[in-house]
Amino acid sequence: MEPVPSISETPPVPKHIAIIMDGNGRWAAAPHLPRMAGHERGASAVRRTVEAAAKLGISPGIARAKKFAT
Hints:
alpha+beta; single chain; 39% helix; 2 strands; 70 residues
């Protein structure tokens, strides 16, 4: 396992991130939850990711999300 980089070794913050949501409905189906539970969990994960990106200085307008439904 590689050591965690110190703050002085932190790489530059990206200007753009992409979030691809896929598999939330399948995730919910595995434990016999309604499909909507998977979509809600996925939306929560995206929200946390975008909030963390904002704390790192990534502009909210630059974060993009795409969902796939199967």
